[in-house]
Amino acid sequence: MIPWLADDSLDFPPLELALDEPNGLLAAGGDLSRERLLKAYRKGIFPWYNPGEPILWWSPDPRCVIWPEDLYLSRSLRKRLRKQDYTVTFDQAFHRVISACASPRPKQDGTWISNDIFCAYLDLHHQGHAHSVEVWIDDELVGGLYGLAIGRVFFGESMFSRQRDCSKIAFAWLARQLQYWGYELIDCQVYNDHLASLGASEVPRQYFAELLDEFTVQPLVHDWAFDLTREAFNGARDE
């Protein structure tokens, strides 16, 4: 059994009470209010559930992260990043990005991004907490991602690609810009091969929570606009 969150409290159970199987399941219930979501992320907890299920809250162990300075770019991706046929923006089409992320993927029957999730993160975007990265080719949205920025941590949520490598382009530009601004960490939640190809690693949940205690306290003040050029990738770690 896992705890059921009270509607009148924003408290979460201690992370060490999360289940081993399924990995990281911590609690159920509650709501997707702005206050609860921000508190959850600061503690290393995020919601993930299928439509028709109660809200489920997770904190997996280990945790997948990318240190911005450890962004890994293959030779082919670095070459792609230098081409002039695309543009990258922040927060120009958040609604369209999360809609694209919510679209079913090949070999998937549905999506975990329900209307409630959609509305909750759109509210976070309107309040300046959630941000999107868009990749454009000939004025067509071909890739992107979205997530939350709290303090010096960016919590990645989902990404999509309609042309080859366009989600990687979005992530590479994000990571380089975050590094330039002084961000310490990108949370990727759960390890997979796609993230590993960009330099992701895993850290113990307790260590991740300690990092959040340190890095989510002091907010960074900056405009959400790219001020990098393609030369930012000249010295990127590659194979």
UniProtKB/TrEMBL annotation:
Classification via SUPFAM superfamilies: Acyl-CoA N-acyltransferases (Nat)
Function: Functions in the N-end rule pathway of protein degradation where it conjugates Leu, Phe and, less efficiently, Met from aminoacyl-tRNAs to the N-termini of proteins containing an N-terminal arginine or lysine.
Enzyme Commission code(s) on record: 2.3.2.6
Protein's name in the database: Leucyl/phenylalanyl-tRNA--protein transferase
Subcellular location: Cytoplasm
GO cellular component: cytoplasm
Enzyme kind, highest EC tier: transferase
Gene (UniProt): aat
Principal localisation: cytoplasm
UniProt keywords, alphabetically: Acyltransferase, Cytoplasm, Transferase
